[in-house]
Amino acid sequence: MNYKLTIGWLYPKLMSTYGDRGNVIVLQKRCEWRKIETEIKIIDTLSTNKDLSSCDLLMMGGAQDTQQEIVAKDLKKKKSTFKKMIEDGTPGLYICGGFQYLGRYYKTAQGNKLPQLEVLDMYTENPGRERLIGNIAIDAQNLFEKRTVLVGFENHGGRTIPGDNIKPLGRVLRGFGSNDISKEEGALYKNTIGTYLHGPILSKNPVLADYLIEKALELKYKTDITLEMLDDSLEEKARMAIAKRLQIAI
Amino acid sequence: MINILIILIGKLLSKFSKIFNLGNGSTWPGHIALKLNPNFISDSIRNSKTKVILVVGTNGKTTTSKLLQTILEHNQKKVFLNTSGANLLNGAASSIILNSSFVKLDADFAIFELDENAFPKFLEKVEPDYIVGLNLFRDQLDRYGEIDTISKRWKKSVSKLIKTKLILNADDAQIAFLGKNTKLDSFYFGLNEKNLEKSTMQHASDSILCPNCGAALNFKAYYFSHLGIWRCDKCGFKRPNKIFSEFTYLPLRGTYAKYDVLAAVLLAKIIGFNDSKIESALKKFQPAFGRQEVINYNGKQVELFLSKNPISLNESLSTAQGLKAKTLLIILNDNIPDGLDVSWIWDVDFEQILSKNINIVVSGIRAYDMAIRLKYAGFYVHITDTIENAIDVGLKDLENNEKLFILPNYSAMLEVRKILTGKKIL
């Protein structure tokens, strides 16, 4: 069977702060190497709700404040479609600013409360204190049901506080995570994954990239999918190198 | 009086640190000076006849400063600058100490290259004679923050100045913005080249929003990243009309270096040198270390292109590809001067720029990150554990008339240069 995935890249011009397109490149290539056809669909202020709902997998990066406001305004128009897709289990990866959007509100350092998409039971506050910056490693046990170390880099001023209905993506092994208290990182809701890890996250954690591809195919073709294995020895070495520096076992 | 003491102590410290090889001695005398007298820089400058030139922007500061130094010195001016890598206030203060004879600053011109954060701090203390504004690209978000924030902070600091002359890049909206609604004399440089005009932007681009009103900017053409012919349809802010865009002689290759040359030449003209004096000076120009610098190593030629962010790596790749490079050595570190985050390599357009048959060797602390990036771009790479090995591997298959192109980021450049020349540079 010839599979095809439409990857919706949300606001690449406005929300692609630091290597975010790497996640799209990784998804695209890992499909290509397995002969899964892909189409990258850019979802921006000119796109319709129909464009959005034609996507099988969503990816959203981070942004600067001004850009984030423009996106927030536009996303309001797409809110119900977006929400339905998430509820229906459309897999998605939401990084940093993209992750914060999924919550109820974002409170700026000046104390302004900006309403967000309210698809996930969580909120983010920027206390105006130091940004949380550095290499980070987490155990994404909630997603993979066994110890799975994901590595990346975090750089965020906002602290995200998850509500009761949100499972974190994982437990922080090194670094800060969603906020500086709970030692938890990211959020997991159906097939929606929010996280502060960039690097970009999928480049050194192909297991997460394959998870998203697998779920997207399963939802679209309504069948169990087992992806063909790829040679990830380079990615594995990169992950080991970070783990060694952070002094954790993989 | 305290400054006399600071200068004497500073000179001693610097000598001491050089003799005993305790690091480069280029920042910590300044660090101590500023601790003893927070106004050390302004006091020293006020008591001198030295004219102050600040060079700011993400890329090209060192090259532009070196170009200016060459033009000024060739025309019998006494010049000093803060040494490379010392572009914080303590580096500026150190250079003042080293260039003061007894108690007084002894130079016609001081050229300070300052990083994004040090620039507004410097303006709080000293009103410079000239500011050269080159560009604002995203660089080290972990250190400098986002460029919109930097741009706003710069504009605020510059608006407090009274007599400074501004030499600004017209093609970069964020930089041209510094000259908007100001009483200061503003002069602009930029490109005017039909053949370079592109209709789409490179990926690693930013600041597509109007710095004046926040609306999306409208571009007629892009020269390079977000640099181009722009205007804001909402508030009417647009690229200035009168732009210095050509000179008879260019000592460096590449679009990017052309901006640096235009900036330096424009300032030299404003200071009062004529074209022939500037041209003959530029013919003597030697690139700053690591910037298109050619070094002979074991009978072969190596050319270094400092590549520290997506914009400079894109430009280095284009230049090397244009020169028909057979082998590239890319070295990626994540030490403090480099920025700890290497995600930016995914914003580099390897796929579009390089031909598929080029040999690529990678090394550095983040060699694997670079290797993965290149794997996904469709290149097979050779990974080496040490930079020495990487150079040997890179040179192995080259004929004597072929060059190895080395693209290191900042701390990697220092390391590789030490290996190639057998000595430390700082």
Short description:
With 250 residues, chain A is of the alpha/beta class. Chain A has helices at residues 21-32, 49-53, 65-87, 97-101, 141-144, 201-204, 206-221, 233-245; strands spanning 4-10, 37-43, 57-60, 92-95, 105-107, 113-115, 122-125, 132-139, 149-156, 159-162, 170-174, 184-185, 187-189, 192-195. Helices cover 33% and strands 26% of the residues of chain A.
Please state the CA-atom Rg of chain B, rounded to the nearest Å. 21 Å
Mean pLDDT of chain B: 88
Number of strands of chain B: 16
Q: What's the CATH class of the largest domain in chain B, please?
A: Alpha Beta
Low-confidence stretches of chain A: none
The order of strands across the largest sheet of chain A is 2-1-3-4-14-13
Number of domains of chain A: 1
Largest interface: A-B, 31 and 26 residues
Task: Please tell me about this protein's structure.
The complex is a heterodimer of chains A (250) and B (426). The N and C termini of chain A lie far apart (36 Å). In chain A, the strands form three sheets. Chain A has a six-stranded mixed β-sheet with strand order 2-1-3-4-14-13. In chain A, strands 6-5-7-10 form a four-stranded mixed β-sheet, with no helix packed on it. A four-stranded antiparallel β-sheet of chain A has the order 9-8-11-12. Chain A has helices at 21-32, 49-53, 65-87, 97-101, 141-144, 201-204, 206-221, 233-245, and strands spanning 4-10, 37-43, 57-60, 92-95, 105-107, 113-115, 122-125, 132-139, 149-156, 159-162, 170-174, 184-185, 187-189, 192-195. Chain A has a single domain (4-245), classed as Class I glutamine amidotransferase (GATase) domain (Rossmann fold). The longest helix of chain A has 23 residues, at 65-87. Chain A is of the alpha/beta class and 250 residues long. In chain A, helix 1 crosses helix 7 (206-221). Chain A has eight helices and 14 strands. By secondary structure, chain B is α/β, with parallel strands linked by helices. Chain B folds into two domains: 2-282, 3-Layer(aba) Sandwich (UDP-N-acetylmuramoyl-L-alanine:D-glutamate ligase), CATH 3.40.1190; 291-421, Protein-Tyrosine Phosphatase, Chain A (Alpha-Beta Complex). Chain B is built from 16 helices and 16 strands. Chain B has helices at 2-19, 28-36, 40-46, 61-74, 89-98, 118-125, 141-144, 147-158, 173-176, 255-271, 275-282, 310-322, 350-353, 367-376, 387-396, 410-421, and strands at 51-56, 79-81, 100-101, 104-105, 109-114, 130-133, 165-169, 186-189, 218-224, 227-231, 291-297, 300-305, 327-331, 359-363, 381-383, 403-408. In chain B, the strands form four sheets. Chain B has a six-stranded parallel β-sheet, sandwiched between helices. In chain B, strands 11-12-16-13-14-15 form a six-stranded mixed β-sheet, with helices on both faces. The model of chain B has no long low-confidence stretch (mean pLDDT 88). Classes of the chains: A alpha/beta (250), B alpha/beta (426).
